[in-house]
Amino acid sequence: MIAIPPDKREQRHLLDALTAALGQMPDPFAARWAGQLEENLSAFFLDAHALAVSSGTAALHTALACAGIGPGDEVLLPALTVVMSAAPILIAGARPVFVDSNPHTLDIDYQDAARRLTERTRAIMPVHLWGRMGDPAVLRDFAERHGLIVIEDACQAIGSSRDDIAAGTIGDYGAFSTKDGKILWSGEGGFLLTRDERHAELARAYRTHWQTPPAGQAPLSRAAANYRLAEPLAAIAALNAIHLPYLLVRRKAQTRRLLDRLAGLPGLTVLEPHPSERWNHYAPLLRIDLLEARRLCERLAELHVPNSVGTFKLVSCDTRPAFAQPDRAPCPGAAQVIDTILAPILTDRDDEDSIDAHALVIEKQVTAWTQ
Asked: Is the pTM of this model over 0.70?
């Protein structure tokens, strides 16, 4: 049984950072900790530009705005996602066009994506749900052939990579969240990643009302947003970013411990990543080969085993009322994945006892479900 490494981070350092951040308030120009966070993330991602923002949603919206996506435009994205991926597209004034997924690989169904292209399609937004990545080469080839901007929703995928390409670095922009529950957490927050200096300049300007514009432009010459990350939250994120390699090791141990406890249990099949993928183990994934799989997930949630379907009512995003489009073909592959998936939710706080307790509940319920 895999042991979870003890938490060696010194909480005193976090408290000191919070005290320092609070001590400099109120200061409308404070950005010490946000700047430190960006330096730490830039180092982790091998000198990519990292820009701290107030949430993963803010990161996605900033990317769309800086890419010039707006009214009349369409953005392809998988129906195998959460509303937080699609909402920024609507906020930008564009239209989300949902694409099916391959139920065996969880990757975008690119044949379906090609069928949904129109003259208004401007971008594609892959979503690395549960930290899982699709094939970067196929994504890049599809985007290049059709002249599409690539904006990655990597909010759950920090630390994942495939073919040595890190999540969030495949395309033009990568968006991340640091909300509680993410591997790198700060309560709320997020960041945008890009390797293009011009993209970074635009994003820096956009997140703060265009007060610090790109070279050659006047301050406040464009309407933009307030997506700055508050300094106390930036302090938490900056300290956790220093320990990100440890946090990734810890999440891997947490996930592997739960999967090991459930290995061989009739009715559940572990969904392992692609051989070339270095998965961050964001959430254990198991295929449910039982009747009424969604009801099983709901029952587990009632018994305090949080999971994507039972707790957060995950469904294929194209069926949500806010995004339903009667003139579009459904996405059965995405629905098949969601309706047969058990994805327990883990956080940094889960220890061996809590994970073993979750495993015991799952084992008892699955065993009873098969009888």
From this structure: yes
